[in-house]
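Researcher: Predict the fold of Meiotic nuclear division protein 1 homolog.
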Amino acid sequence: MSKKRGLSLEEKRTRMLELFFERKEFFLLKELEKIAPKEKGITSMSVKEVVQSLVDDNLVDTDKIGTSIYFWAYPSKAKHTRQQKLTQLTQQIDECEKKIASTTKLLRQANSGREQSNERNSILEELTQKEKLCKELEQELERYRECDPEVLENLQKETLMSKEGANRWTDNVFTIKSWCERKFGLEKKMMDKSFGIPEDFDYVE
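Model: Structure tokens for Meiotic nuclear division protein 1 homolog follow.
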């Protein structure tokens, strides 16, 4: 004999709702764990999970009175909840269908004029060649960028600024050397040797 198949979660939910609808009473979880296995074949271990799933879906109401938590459900409430869910899903389906219709229309418009033809293939081939040529010209332009008048002008300006900066520092070094010579009586050669100043140190022409 084949082993008896256990109830699925959805089957347990359906049977648990039947229990509430038939009894029309308030229950503690412990009471449901005793009644459900006998009347609906739902194992006591899964009662809490089933009831909580029904509460999460707003099909079973719950409230705490003192230290006890009670559960109950009526057919009218379940019907209303399901009707709300059905309305919500219907609206979502309508919105999806509208989006699909809109996207399909845009797709048709985008594909209009893109039908395969010799003329279109010729244009696409020409476009590919021109894009390749454009890329080659950009690469060649990059090689000749050093000869660009604007680039050369900027380079000259930068060179002049560097030259002026170097001469300012050279002037500062000569000023400090002169001050040290007067203040401490140090010889220039000794200062040059001590501070690593080359003999040909001078302004940049």
